[in-house]
Amino acid sequence: MTQETAPRRSRGRPPGSSRAEIERAAIGLFLAHGYAGTSLAMITGACGISKTSFFRYYPSKAQIIWSAFDEHTRALRALLERADPEVPLLRSVRHAVVEALRGSIDAEGLWMRRFIILDSSPELRAEESLHWDSWADVIAERIADRTGTGPHALVPASIGGALQAAFLATLRTQRDAPDPAATVLRALEDDLAPLCDVLQSWLDAGRAAA
Question: Which domains does the chain have, with CATH numbers?
Answer without folding.
Answer: 1-61 (1.10.10), 64-209 (1.10.357.10)
